[in-house]
Target: Major facilitator superfamily (MFS) profile domain-containing protein
Amino acid sequence: MVLASAGYSLLEAFPASTAKYWMIITRFLIGVSAANVTVIRSYISAATTLDERTGATSILALCQVMGYIFGPVVQSILTSLLGNDGFPIIEGFISMNMYTSVGWVIVVLSSINFVLLLPQFFTEQHIAVREEMKTQGISTPLPDSQPVWKKSKLDYLAAFSLIFGYFVLVFNIALLENLGIPIVMDQFAWTNEEAVYYMGIVMAVGAIISVTVIALLKFVCKYISEANLVIYGGFLFMFIGRLAYIPWGDAPPQLQFSHEHNLTNAVGCPVVEQPWCEFTPAMTLPQVLIGYLFLSIGYPIGVTLLFSIFSKILGSRPQGVWMGLMMGTGSFARAIGSIVLSIMYVELGTTLTFSITSIMILAYGVWLVLVHKRLKPNDRAVLASPRQVRMIVLKENMNGKGGNAPIADEERQALRQ
Model:
């Protein structure tokens, strides 16, 4: 992240003929470095107990949302302060302006993060494995953690149900992320400036609501199970929020015809490109606000608890691959959702687009109701007994796979019982 952000901010130092290629490379590296979220989620799972897991994942989600909030704010402040020209640091090589300043801020923050993760300041912990050993009554240190989870049964149905649930959430939220401004421009005949301004306010308020919801999750989960909360607080609210976007009005929106399409002040629903504008009722402002309110509550609940439950179902086994699979599924959903939903909106219109996505969320919610008993890891985890674990260790030591750790006399006695 440090090198990629610095390279992006130094693009002016490269020849103009090759700068665009360096920009693509740096943006690619930034995208790759963003995958560290998967490693972070995996480590949180390994460094927390089951009781701590929900609170830890909530804090991570809270930090992400705050980043989404303050990132654009910092960019706006730096843009207004520095402007297009800014000021040079090293003439012709390094400058600080509205385009490069955010990159340098990321360099500073990433450098601080790098230092904090050095061995002098950061000590890796394996709390989940120790908790599993305690649960199984193992007090003697084992050569490695693998025997603790090696005989555990992973519920693949529950795991893949949660992965698909993350796909559903991200796929649907991509609709507003990518089409929120075009939709309100079509429906309310707003200019681009008006749409950006008003939707910015709505999204800022929604972000504050999401932060509040995430902050309260740990407390709420003391009284409501995570499985029930993700169903009735996450996906039910997402369903209501999406259902609220099906047009309530009784008249079509203001129409924009072809001869106005290329004018900078043209507003309204482009009937030539989107024929449904002529006969589909317009959305109302109250329903947009109500829908966004429910989405701002349901989405953070769903995302945070899906990861929390998923981590608990995986147990003490290494979770990097599984977390990577889940994050990769979300990235795929975001990419394909942007394309598919854009096509659906242009070709089918608001009524069918929001109806189809509502049915999608409802169908998955029903599926969660059917499998919700399998989303409680404490009830369904089947782990190796202490005797089985010690037998595994003894066999691996005899085969030369367990390292040089000796087998204690009491362990051998336990194997004979």
Q: What stands out?
A: Confidence is low (pLDDT under 50) at residues 378-390, 400-417. The CA atoms of residues 112 and 118 lie 10 Å apart.
